[in-house]
């Protein structure tokens, strides 16, 4: 039932990406992968995704934040659900003061810590997608 | 290139200035002089000397005041007073104001050379201490970044792939093989937890939890902590006995952190208790504070080890369960409790047991 769902993952650690992607693949999702913010943004322009899995700490710092900010400004992209996957939950508190777990960058988002338990990962992905769909049908 | 040590001499007697300059000549110093306190202080600001000699008795600003002002300008500048009336009182007063030493007049060239050398040595040590402190601070700050990126990321990637693999191979591998994968996951998980604890101690400013303080009920706090520990206690056949005095009500705090602190302390008691024994967790109201005590009758702590228990990386020698721990939990607990304006103390007797006492100001609820 997940076969028609298109996901995009932006993360600069190919090994980590492999671990996440194969769990999502097995669950029937179709997952595109980019390894840096630039390619990630390009992919978002070219295709419509049902969910974005985003790493925060990329490159020299929190480059993922830059993407999250861009999503928020874009009227179409900010409707796409976002699952932030970060290695450093402790530092998230500084990046989002007062919002340690729900970054609230876009309408539907959540944050999980690396590594992500497969069950939790699939739960979050499916929950975020349904939440976003429910929002859309309500709005439409 | 090494710069010459800078020495400033402040004295109203020209003969003193001249002879001192002469004595230090050829000693590879850069010597300046000033004939009164005002000029002297200008020099201090301008040249930032390493060592300043100050005559106590001068017209204009008195020597004692010059001393104080130098300390205000730069507390690492070493000052030595020259005094013509070498009384104990004036020397003591000067030392109180921060002078490093004093030199009674008249003095011999050798005495002057020796005291100069000692003063400069002192200055060098002070600067070194400051540099080391700074370095330590930088190390501490970088530690978080290094640990999280260089250790956590690869471990996270390994774990993620193990998760994926164990799912994919679930139907292919034998039970024995799957058990091996499970054990690998557990070991990596332990490592990740250890790294997170380090991060918590070294990078997170625990006082920041103050921004999220809410009114919390002590009984729900204790219940939550005990609930977490209960399975471990049951496994060792240890009973946790909770007594909360009626007068105990609320405190201001961050519930998550306080539960963490209590879990660490009660968990510690479980770890060092004998199977079949009891751990008492009591809460009472005392003089505006909520006092929570955790009393075990376990192995206890040797008297000489007691002062170290709440410091970084202490780990008791006799761990009853044989399980691994990183001796960092109690440090975190202490910091969490202190961030709540509270305190924690420990008393113990070897082979009799240990008591941890936590005290946190209670919240006055207006009715």
Helix percentage of chain B = 40-55%
Total strands of chain B: the figure is: 12
Percent range for β-strand residues of chain A: 15-25%
Largest sheet of chain B: 5 strands, parallel
Q: Report the uncertain regions of chain B.
A: 319-326
Order of helices and strands of chain B: EHEHEHEHEHHEHEEHEEHEE
Instruction: Name the CATH superfamily classification of chain A.
Output: Response regulator
Count the beta strands of chain A. 5
Major sheet strand order of chain B: 2-1-3-4-5
Can you tell me the residue ranges of chain A where pLDDT is under 50 for at least 5 consecutive residues? 90-100
Structural class of chain A: alpha/beta
Mean pLDDT of chain B: 86
Radius of gyration of chain B: 31 Å
Total number of helices of chain B: 9
Strand content of chain B: 15-25%
Top-tier CATH class of chain A: Alpha Beta
Instruction: Please give the share of residues in helix of chain A.
Output: 40-55%
Main sheet summary of chain A:
5 strands, parallel
Could you spell the SSE succession of chain A in H and E letters?
A: EHEHEHEHEH
What is the SS-derived class of chain B?
alpha/beta
């Amino acid at each position: 039932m997940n076969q028609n769902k298109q996901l995009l993952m932006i993360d600069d650690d190919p090994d980590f990406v492999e671990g996440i992607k194969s769990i999502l693949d097995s669950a029937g999702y179709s997952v595109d992968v980019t390894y840096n913010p630039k390619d990630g943004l390009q992919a978002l322009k070219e295709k419509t995704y049902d969910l974005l899995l985003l790493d925060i700490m990329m490159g020299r710092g929190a480059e993922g934040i830059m993407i999250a900010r861009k999503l928020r400004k874009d009227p179409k992209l900010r409707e796409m659900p976002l699952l932030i996957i970060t290695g450093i939950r402790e530092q998230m508190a500084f990046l989002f003061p007062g919002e340690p777990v729900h970054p609230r960058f876009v309408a539907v988002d959540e944050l999980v810590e690396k590594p992500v338990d497969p069950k939790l990962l699939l739960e979050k992905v499916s929950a975020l997608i349904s939440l976003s769909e429910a929002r859309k049908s309500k709005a439409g | 290139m090494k710069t010459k040590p800078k020495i400033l001499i402040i004295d109203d007697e020209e003969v003193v200035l001249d002879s001192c300059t002469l004595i230090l000549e050829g000693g590879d110093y850069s010597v300046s002089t000033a004939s009164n306190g005002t000029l002297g202080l200008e020099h201090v600001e301008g040249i930032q000397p390493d060592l300043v000699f100050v005559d106590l008795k001068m017209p204009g600003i008195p020597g004692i005041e010059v001393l104080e002002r130098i300390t205000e300008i730069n507390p690492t500048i070493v000052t030595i007073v020259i005094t013509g009336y070498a009384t104990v009182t004036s020397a003591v007063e000067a030392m109180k104001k921060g002078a490093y030493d004093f030199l009674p007049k008249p003095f011999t060239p050798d005495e002057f050379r020796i005291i100069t050398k000692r003063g400069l040595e002192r200055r060098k040590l002070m600067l070194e201490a400051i540099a080391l402190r700074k370095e330590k601070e930088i190390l501490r700050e970088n530690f978080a970044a290094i640990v999280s990126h260089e250790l956590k990321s690869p471990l996270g990637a390994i774990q993620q792939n193990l998760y994926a693999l164990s799912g994919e191979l679930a139907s292919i591998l034998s039970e024995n093989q799957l058990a091996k994968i499970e054990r690998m996951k557990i070991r990596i998980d332990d490592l990740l937890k250890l790294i997170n604890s380090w991060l918590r101690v070294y990078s997170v400013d625990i006082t920041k939890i103050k921004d999220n303080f809410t009114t919390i009920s002590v009984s729900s706090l204790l219940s939550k902590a005990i609930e977490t520990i209960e399975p471990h206690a049951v496994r060792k056949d240890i009973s946790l006995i909770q007594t909360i005095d009626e007068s105990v009500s609320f405190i201001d705090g961050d519930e998550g952190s306080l539960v963490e602190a209590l879990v660490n302390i009660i968990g510690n008691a479980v770890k060092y208790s004998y199977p079949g024994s009891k751990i008492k967790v009591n809460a009472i109201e005392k003089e505006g504070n909520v006092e929570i005590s955790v009393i075990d009758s376990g192995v206890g702590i040797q008297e000489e080890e007691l002062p170290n228990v709440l410091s970084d990386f202490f780990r008791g020698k006799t761990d009853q369960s044989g399980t691994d721990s990183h001796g960092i939990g109690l440090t975190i607990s202490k910091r969490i409790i202190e961030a709540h304006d509270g305190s924690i103390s420990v008393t113990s007797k070897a082979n009799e047991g240990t008591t941890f006492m936590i005290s946190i100001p209670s919240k006055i609820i207006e009715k």
